Structures are given as structure tokens and as C-alpha cells.
Amino acid sequence: MATFFGALVLLVLGYVFYSKFVERVFIINDSTPTPAYTKRDNLDYVPMSWWKGNLIQLLNIAGLGPIYGAVAGALYGPAAFIWIVAGTIFAGGVHDYFSGMMSLRHQGEQYPSLVGRYLGQTVKTIISVVSLVLMVLVAAAFTAGPAQLIAQLTPLSFTVSLLIIFAYFLLATILPINRVIGKIYPLLGGILLFMALAIGISLLFSGKSIPNLTLENLHPGELPIWPLLMVTISCGAISGFHCTQSPIVACTMKKESDGRKIFYGAMVTEGVIALIWAAAGMTFFNGTAGLGEALAAGGPSGVVNEISTSLLGTLGGILAILGVIILPITTGDTALRSSRMILTEIFAKFFNMESKIKILLVTVLVAVPALFLATIDYTFLWRYVGWTNQVVATVMLWTGTVYLLKNSRFHWICGVPALFMTGVVCTYIFYAPEGLGMDYRLSMIIGFSLAAAVLAWYISQIFKYRQLRVNSKDFRAA
């Protein structure tokens, strides 16, 4: 139990101290007008208070991610606590802060445009496709589950439930952000936080002992911690989906100093939620073997429902149903909203995109494939969400690294986690069944070799920008 409390304290200290350091490295300026005012269109660019932005960001990036992912990651034992804490403070928080603040600095630019600005047009083209595929997969994966549960609890069929959810998606995606998202999401974000805190407090008084730290891999299936844990627990540590969502809130910020509370703060809150659910998963079922059996029998939804109803009674059952139905839907609609904003930004170079009909048509472009994919196996979708998600996160960290290099700032805060995640995704793609399914040792060799090549590129960039600064000083002196 000491490990659990220690992890909570470290997350809080990470926000109090490290987020301020990250903010100082970025260098904020509250006298600079934000795009919420300079580009106000009463659709995406609308000023909102920081606390609304924080809760909207939390719901956008979280949903059921820090619950389902943490429960699955708990199979590895207390080693999951290390990844949640270190990932949140040094990778996820930095990733979310830079994706939001860089969007703010560039007048609400979407993630692919930021990538193109700092890593080049070729990378932008690739990442535009990957990020759009990721969001379509997320929208599909986070819609199928709620539709199935609605069909079980009501007279509605699965197909009708799916169509109702996607009708809501279309409305939420094309309506002004302060009409639906700005009014409902802060409340739902509060419910998500309350649910996690209620589970955490009940767990402490349940008489069960939360296991303390051990570096031993306790996965009942003997799956390796590296790199699987870092992909299994993404929301709650670092997730590429977040950098597609941060620009949504960046377009509503009143001042730059709100960024730390909104982006880094929401990430730390999500880390706390993941920590609680990871502890609940490995404790409630008396170890990882019991958790593995529960997951095999009822999946993550069944595990969440059993923990909630057992620890919180009727209230837990209500919260579990709300969570499994509402929270994934709120992730799906913002996934489509950000997809619409990315496509609108791309098409705006060729067409006038101010017409609401055109905005609706762009939304349909991503909604239709998401609707189709929602009808196939959820677990199949989720396998591909995992590695595409972390590829997107890795590219965002490298984007932040180059931004800091260009501006002569302490680039290591993005560069070190970027290099770590490069090793993760390179190894995972070669090893995982949904990747190339190669031998583990060979995958490690290839993965680390590719990471070493990227490190060499990183060092070359350091020298490149250092030389540019020297040349600039010499030119000014002359």
C-alpha cells in the first residue's frame, strides 16, 4: 500500500514542480492574444474559462482509456505503477502541454500542421494519414461497446443504438464547442473523477492490501513488460490521441498561463485515475492471476462493473453503466471533431470551408468509415489503436524537440522521452501480433538499432542548430 500512496504523492509533486519547469522552458506570455479572440468564429474558436478547459480536456483525453488500459496493464503487477508515474510526469504531461501550447502559439493549428512545420512535409503527410486512421479507429472502438450495452439494457437493437450514437456524433462535431461540449463535458469530467476517487477510497477500506513495488513481471501469460506495458497503458501515461485533442481546447484558451493547468493538469489527473484503477485491478481479484481470469471471462467492461458494484453497491452500478456508455461516446465525438478540424485545415488551402454544409460533408467523410468499423470485433480494433496511438505520441515529442532546438531552449525535456518512446514503438511493431510478429529477441535488436539511428539524427540536429546560432551571432557581429 505504501507504493500506491507514494505514487500518488509523486504525481502531485510532478504537477507542482516539474510542470512549472516545463512552463519556464516553453516561456509563456499572457500579453499575446490567443486564437480564441483573434480567430473567433463561434464554432471552434470561442473563449472559455480554464477550469472548463481542464475538465473538457480531461474528458477528451480520458474516457475509458485510463480505466480499461490501467486494468489491462495491472496484469504486470506493481511495475505498472512505475510506468504510470514516470510516463505521466516526464512523457505524457510534456507531450500534452507542448501539443496544446504549440497549437496555441500557431493560431490553433492542428497536430499534422505542427508536425509539418517542424519535421517537414513528408512526415506531415504520413502523420496526417496515421492520425486520421487513429481517430477513426478510436471513434469506432469507443462506440461499439456502448451500443452493445444499450442494446442489452433497452429494447433497441445494436444497429439502432449505433445509429443514434453516430447521429449525436454529427451534432456534437458540427455545433459550436460551447453549445454541447462546453456545457455537458465539465459535468461528465467531474463524474469521471468522482468515480475514480470513490473507487480509490472504497478500496482502501475494503480490507484488501494493495501490493507494494516489485520489479518482477507478474503477468499470468508471461508477456514481456517491454514494450507491451508502455502500449497497454497509454492513457494514464502517454497517449498520442491526446495531441489530436489538445488543439480543440487550445482554440478556447483566454491566456497562455492557463496551459499548465489545462494540459499538464488534465494529464496528471488522468494519471491519478489510471493509478487507482490499476491498484483496484491487481488488488480486488487477489493478484494478477485472478485479474487475468476475470478479464478472460468478462472483458474490461465486466471487470469494471464487478469492481464498481462490489465496492460501491448501487451507486457503483450506476457509475459503471454511466462510465461504460457515456465516457467512450465522449471520446468518440471529440475524435471525429478533431478529424473534422484536421480535414477542414487541409481542404481550406483549396476551398472556402466557411459553409456549414461543407463542414458537415467533411464530418461525414470520417463518420462513415468509423460507423462501418464499429460493427466489427472491438478487440481487433483495439489492437491497432495501441501502436498507431504511440507512434503519433512519439512524433509529437520529436516535434516538440525540434521546436525547442529552433528556439534555443532546453530540448531534452522532449528529446529524452521521445527517444524512449521511439524504442518502444520500434520494438512493438516488430514484436506484436498486430505488427510483424517476430521473435522477441530479434525485435529488441531491431528496435534498439532503429532507436540508435534516431539518436544519431537527434545529435546531428543538436549540432545543426548550435552551428546556426553561432553563424547568426557572427553575422550580427559583422
Automatic annotation (TrEMBL):
GO terms for biological process: cellular response to starvation. Its main location: membrane. InterPro entries: CstA, CstA_N. It is found in: Cell membrane. It is a multi-pass membrane protein. The keyword S-adenosyl-L-methionine does not apply. Residues 5-200, 293-424 form the CstA N-terminal domain. The chain crosses the membrane at residues 80-104, 125-144, 156-177, 184-205, 225-250, 262-287, 307-331, 359-381, 387-405, 412-430, 442-459. Keywords: Cell membrane, Membrane, Transmembrane, Transmembrane helix. One of its GO terms (cellular component) is plasma membrane. PANTHER family: CARBON STARVATION (PTHR30252:SF4), INNER MEMBRANE PEPTIDE TRANSPORTER (PTHR30252). Belongs to the peptide transporter carbon starvation (CstA) (TC 2.A.114) family. This is Carbon starvation protein A.
